[in-house]
UniProtKB/TrEMBL annotation:
This is Cytochrome c oxidase subunit 2. It is a multi-pass membrane protein. Belongs to the cytochrome c oxidase subunit 2 family. Its cofactor is Cu cation. The lineage of its organism: Eukaryota, Metazoa, Ecdysozoa, Arthropoda, Hexapoda. Keywords: Copper, Electron transport, Magnesium, Membrane, Metal-binding, Mitochondrion, Mitochondrion inner membrane, Respiratory chain, Translocase, Transmembrane, Transmembrane helix, Transport. It comes from Archichauliodes neoguttiferus. GO terms for biological process: ATP synthesis coupled electron transport. Component of the cytochrome c oxidase, the last enzyme in the mitochondrial electron transport chain which drives oxidative phosphorylation. The respiratory chain contains 3 multisubunit complexes succinate dehydrogenase (complex II, CII), ubiquinol-cytochrome c oxidoreductase (cytochrome b-c1 complex, complex III, CIII) and cytochrome c oxidase (complex IV, CIV), that cooperate to transfer electrons derived from NADH and succinate to molecular oxygen, creating an electrochemical gradient over the inner membrane that drives transmembrane transport and the ATP synthase. One of its GO terms (molecular function) is oxidoreductase activity.
Length: 228
């Protein structure tokens, strides 16, 4: 999760988020190079005293400053398109979970297991444990196995919501009357926090998401306890 004075991206917990971080660094490096080049050219324009009263046109330089930005955009577009297709890929999920957005809480259903469903509300401040996180902890966490491909189906019952967990690289809109899907793969255990990122009303800030990633054998025991 994000902490004070952390200006970087959160530590990734999935391969997709790793790829998003690599693409961010790749694009940022190109932006820095462009900024340095334009800054250098502007500084030299202010500092030199060259004049040319007879210069009316320059096809060569116009060709150069048209082609170079086009090549630069290709270096950004190709990895971006690759990443877009990777984010949409649904590859043989082990578990399917359904998330339903309400004003202002989430409901979850484990479609592969009989009768496992629950609501998830934000934990009030006066009920929060000492090591809890304000506005991020919930009364019922999502529990999912690590090292498994997870498919999530997202919808809403009232207004637009958005199911977003930054450390997993997941952001998907919850739209009434529509079922959206995406998938993710958690490569380590831990707690991963998210929030609704679509302005959905007065308590938009108070419908967090908490995912607990655990080993598969512990997840099976959790499912058995939920069914009992």
């Amino acid at each position: 999760m994000a902490t004070w004075s952390n200006l970087n991206l959160q530590d990734s917990a999935s391969p997709l988020m790793e790829q998003l971080a690599f693409f961010h660094d790749h694009t940022l490096l190109i932006i820095i190079m462009i900024t340095m080049l334009v800054g250098y050219l502007m500084a030299t324009l202010f500092s030199n005293k060259f004049t040319n009263r007879l210069l009316l046109e320059g096809q060569t330089i116009e060709i150069i400053w048209t082609i170079l930005p086009a090549i630069t955009l290709v270096f950004i577009a190709l990895p971006s398109l690759r990443l877009l297709y990777l984010l949409d890929e649904i590859s043989d999920p082990s578990i399917t979970m359904k998330s339903i957005g309400h004003q202002w809480y989430w409901s979850y259903e484990y479609s592969d297991f009989f009768n496992v469903e629950f609501d998830s509300y934000m934990t009030p401040y006066h009920e929060m444990p000492k090591n809890g996180f304000r506005l991020l902890d919930v009364d019922n966490r999502i529990v999912l196995p690590m090292l498994s491909q997870i498919r999530i189906l997202v919808t809403a019952t009232d207004v637009l919501h958005s199911w977003t967990v930054p450390s997993l690289g997941v952001k998907i809109d919850a739209t009434p009357g529509r079922l959206n899907q995406t998938s993710f793969f958690m490569n380590r255990p831990g707690l991963f926090y998210g929030q609704c990122s679509e302005i959905c009303g007065a308590n938009h800030s108070f419908m967090p998401i908490t995912i607990e990633s655990i080993p598969s054998n512990m997840f099976i025991n959790w499912i058995k306890n939920m069914n009992n």
